[in-house]
Amino acid sequence: MAVHRVPRLDMKSTLLFVCDMQEKFSKTNKFFPEIAQTATRVISAARILDIPIVVTEHYPKGLGSTVPELEIPSSVLRYPKTQFSMCIPEVVPLLNGRKSVILVGVEAHVCILHTTYDLIEKGIDVHVVVDAVTARNLVDRKFAFKQLERVGAVLTTSECVLLGLLKDAAHPKFKEVQKLVMSEAPESGLMDIFSRIYNNMASRMITRLSPKNSVLFVCDMQERFSKTIAYFPAIVQTAKRLVDAARILDIPIVVTEQYPKGLGHTVPELGLADEKKYPKTRFSMCVPELDVPSSNNVILVGIEAHACVLQTTLDLIEKGKTVHVVVDAVSSRSLADR
Fold first, then answer.
1. Which SUPFAM superfamilies does the record match to this protein (predicted)?
2. 320 backbone φψ class: left, alpha, beta (φ>0; ψ -120 to 50)
């Protein structure tokens, strides 16, 4: 089975690009206060994790300076520009030795899009933080996201980025970043934009499943999460159907629990009391002690979509597995993150 490369974030090889979050744009761009609040969250995490921050200002003489609410330290240079891309001659050398760029700012269909074009041409993985990117017109924002995805950018959320950088709750700076994660990002009109994802799912080609080469992964469906995860009772009910089907069809079941000492055990409604539970602190289910059956297909249910489910999927794809994420058995605290 071929091994696939996936665009992971690694804090040692990542830059944060803050694109043109200026005073004049604050009056014209949709959801700008919410976008600035979310961008501040990402900037704060970058400072905690020692990720370099690159800030540009588009024609600052006419459009003003970077808004103060971002709380960017004065020691961080602001690079003035007139071209739409952030990849001006003064910025390009900063990419040396870097594999990934986290991108926030305005406007989605102009400077964000052209910056992404340039970065991808240079072989850089671009993670566009959709809840920290906007435009004056929501139609431009929507179709910019579509174009960004088409050219190869990773569309992600602020919380997904923060947890993707850490990868493990045992990280020494987890507690500091967790405070940022627990302050939920404000709503910025994303649910309407991304409803198309659900509308188009049925038309996508999928790999066939066979009981003989499949395994069911149940990810962190624990007691403490039951009080915070959106639609948790419905998610559990659907996951239980799959657990029952797996037993009927003799499909192996793998169950993990994230930090069970603090987050409790797998909810009893799933009927998994007799299954072995693998405790973990890292976000991926693929912990070293996991005895994974040699199956080509993994059926994946659980929480949270943008954290442990996503990191598990990345690991499995790298191992050459085909991952079937059961969307009606997966959720998060925030529907935007889901």
1. Isochorismatase-like hydrolases (SSF52499)
2. left
pLDDT tens for 253-296 read 999 999 999 999 999 999 999 999 999 999 999 999 887 667 88
Which tokens hold the place of 173?
């700076």
Token pair, residue 292, equals: 């994974």
pLDDT band at 203 (very low <50, low <70, confident <90, very high): very low
Separation of alpha carbons 85 and 157, rounded Å = 22
Q: Is there a catalytic annotation at residue 81? A: yes
Token pair for 158: 């602020």
**Whole-angstrom Cα distance, residue 157 to residue 89?**
29
For CATH 3.40.50.850, list the domain ranges present in the chain: 11-197, 205-331
Active site (annotated) includes residue 131: no
The pair of three-digit structure tokens given for residue 154, joined into one six-digit string:
């990773």
Residue 199: pLDDT over 60: no
Active-site hit among 19, 30, 87, 111: 111
20 assigned to active site: yes
Contact 287, 253 (CB under 8 A): no
What is the dihedral sign for C-alpha 54, 59, 65, 66? Answer: negative
Write the CATH number of the domain with boundaries 11-197: 3.40.50.850
Cα–Cα distance measured from residue 66 to residue 23, given in angstroms and rounded to the nearest whole number:
6
| Crossing angle of helices 32-48 and 174-182, rounded to 10° | 170
- Choosing from 19, 20, 160, 220, which is the catalytic residue? 20
Question: Which tokens belong to 204?
Answer: 């996508």
CATH 3.30.559.30 fits 205-331, yes or no: no
Cβ count near 33 (within 10 Å): 13
Amino acid identity of residue 130, one-letter, is V
Dist CA 316 CA 177 (whole Å)? 26
